[in-house]
Amino acid sequence: MLLHRLPGIGDSILPSWEASSEQILMKVRLPRILLGMLVGASLAVAGAAFQGVLRNPLADPFTLGVSSGAALGAASLIFFGMEYSFAGGYTLPLVAFLTGAGTLWVVLLLARDQGKLPIHGLILSGVVMQSFLGAVVSFLTVMSKDTVNQILYWTMGSLSMRGWSYTAILFPYFIVGFAYLWSRSRALNILSLGERQAAHMGLNVDRLKTSVLIVATLLAAAAVSVSGVIGFVGLVVPHMIRLITGSDYRTIVPLSALGGAIFMVWCDTAARSVLAPTEIPLGVVTAFIGAPFFAYLLYRNKKRRREGLA
Predict the structure, then answer these.
(1) Given CB 3.0 to 4.6 Å as the disulfide criterion, which of 31, 48, 66, 261 pairs with 100?
(2) For the stretch 180-199, what's the b/e string if a residue is b when 16 or more beta carbons lie within 10 angstroms of its beta carbon?
(3) Are the beta carbons of 219 and 46 closer than 8 angstroms?
(4) In this predicted model, what pLDDT tens digit does every residue of 148-198 receive, in sequence order?
(5) pTM (2 decimals)?
(6) Distance CA 81, CA 65 (A)
(7) Where does the signal peptide begin and end (predicted)?
């Protein structure tokens, strides 16, 4: 398209490029691709941060209920027609962050046992919150008449009909969140040695955990606010990166962003192409990939615990 605008090259050498095709590319295809990259990168980086700060390989925004909490906030605003009520285009991400953060706080509170966060307790608490919040969102969907389709899009996840405005909303959240979490990657490496060892090395463990959880929640909630609930991205991508590069978060964080962007664009392409012209909800595609991977991780962790007790 850019070559077509060069004098003496466009029309004489390259095939004709119609104005309608340019409009489709610039107003439909390109913003959707860029938004998918931002959403995938945000969810993957948030997942890597959750896994690092909780030292739990099964932690991610979806399994901990953060995505469901953020979706409830977004669905509530849509239900009451308040998407742009007090902060313009940033109202939805802000409310999604607050409800997502509240959900994470409840999950951690329920899962904590004598000062520890056992894996099964964390997963069970996340499942409980997902089920409850999903029921509330379903109730809002049933009760709504004018906004039922819009709420359904949020619950199943989609990048359809998302223009440049959605990309502009998520972009600053991603830049700030990614920059901060990457800057704390060395601290996450120290934390991986254990909280007691990290404290002996001079790390303020509580401050690190609080700040990373807040920023990762904001990043995940902002992504959910523009795309709806898309699960397992923050679980699958960081694990694949870790298998390839090792456990250094200075590498995991940036490569998770890259891998998440590629993974999301690939899933969105599959969602549009497999049953074309019918579009599969994006959350369904990621669930088909992520759920078996999640089951594999559960089995592997269970096997390791048995071997450790043997």
Answers:
(1) 66
(2) bbbebbebbbbbbeeeeebe
(3) yes
(4) 777 777 778 888 877 788 898 889 999 999 999 999 999 999 998 888 898
(5) 0.83
(6) 24
(7) none
